[in-house]
Amino acid sequence: MRLIAILCAGLMAAAPAVAQERETLGFGRIFTNDFFGDNQDRWRSGSYAYSIVRGPEWQGRAPSTPGAILEYRLRTEIIAPSALNGAGSNDRPYVGTLSAGLHTHFESGGADVSLGVDLVAVGPQTGVADIQDWFHDVVSAPNVSNSVLTNQVANTVYPTALAEVSYPVIIRENASIRPFVEAQYGVENFIRVGADVLIGQTLQNDLWLRDSASGQLYTGVEGGQAGTGFVLGADYAVVSDSAYFPASFGTIAEDERFRARAGVHWRLGDNFSYFYGVTYLSEEYVGQTEGQIVGSLKLNFNF
User: Fold this and answer.
1) pLDDT number for residue 302
2) InterPro entries of this UniProt entry (predicted)?
3) Which of 3, 15, 166, 176 has an alpha carbon 20 to 30 Å from 234's alpha carbon atom?
4) Which backbone phi and psi does 129 adopt, to 5 degrees?
């Protein structure tokens, strides 16, 4: 908690120094759902993130001052058992999350650094389970059973600190590799290492954000160049604790996770861009029968 408080204070203290120069640079948004992957409506079932990025005029790389660029982030996620009712509905607790956070992005010694804090609310208080149940009624999909609703994680709010350091290395004029280290403390505690390869000149001057569920890179600020680009990535995490697996439920979290992903970005100038990616997620708990595949979408219109 002390670390999170210090990080919050640092972000807020850094902001006034550049506030007079700040403008809206872009909007980050990504929708991840297993409907676009293996279509099983289970486990990491769906999430949506939306960010507003503000700072001084974008020059193709983040400035060296922490707090010069601020990202205001909202996010929601559904994590479900294998089935919403009947057999398989008790293999892991249902989790609905809502979060709001503040992050900063800056360059240091050739590395891209991201630091931030989110308040992550979980449990029935979020209303996520009720919204999913209502939507499934509308589309005639399986409803969330009373037992699943009863056994979802309890109402709590977790202050969560997140830090990532990536080091972009130019392979050739239109390609780069970004090895990274990421650490989180709060709703889930983990350390993650991995790398992403960006292919295409259109992808080389953007501010990149990382989707929490899939690890897919998506843009918070686009460099403005039209074209097509491809992204490949993989990472490995060691997880020491997770609020998504309360001891009272009995399911034991795996202490290692692996993700592998690929995606394509297509841009038509400043006003239209599209992204689709697929990600393999390894098993998250002991006894999970297999990994899963989720898909991620981003569609931008600026008029």
Assistant:
1) 64
2) LpxR, Put_OMP_sf
3) 3
4) -65, -40
